[in-house]
């Protein structure tokens, strides 16, 4: 917040978070604690993808990717 950024909160629909000028709340359906990490992964990946696209980052050629992971 000190640098003027917007905070995105992924929260259960039953939570008491509300969006305002500096915070956006993305409500996700309630799930079992066991599968919650899987359910939350998809919205986080989509957020990361769209932020990268907006910033103009090449999402298919990430910088500093370890050579053991890249395929030529």
Protein described:
The protein has one helix and two strands; from the N terminus they run E-E-H. With 72 residues, it is an alpha+beta fold. It has a domain of 49 residues. It has a two-stranded parallel sheet with strand order 1-2. The protein is flat, with a radius of gyration of 16 Å. 0% of the residues are buried. The mean pLDDT is 80. Keywords: Glutamine amidotransferase.
Short characterization:
The chain has 72 residues and is of the alpha+beta class.
Keywords:
two-stranded parallel ribbon, 1 helix, 17% strand, alpha+beta, single chain, 72 residues, 28% helix
Integer-rounded radius of gyration: 16 Å
**Nearest-integer average pLDDT:** 80
Number of strands: 2
Strand order of the largest sheet: 1-2
Shape: flat
Largest sheet: 2 strands, parallel
How large is the count of helical segments?
Answer: 1
Give the helix proportion (percent range).
25-40%
Give the strand content: 15-25%
Structural category: alpha+beta
Series of secondary-structure elements, N-terminal to C-terminal: EEH
Beginning-to-end CA distance, first to last residue: 41 Å
Q: Low-confidence runs (pLDDT<50, min 5 residues)?
A: none
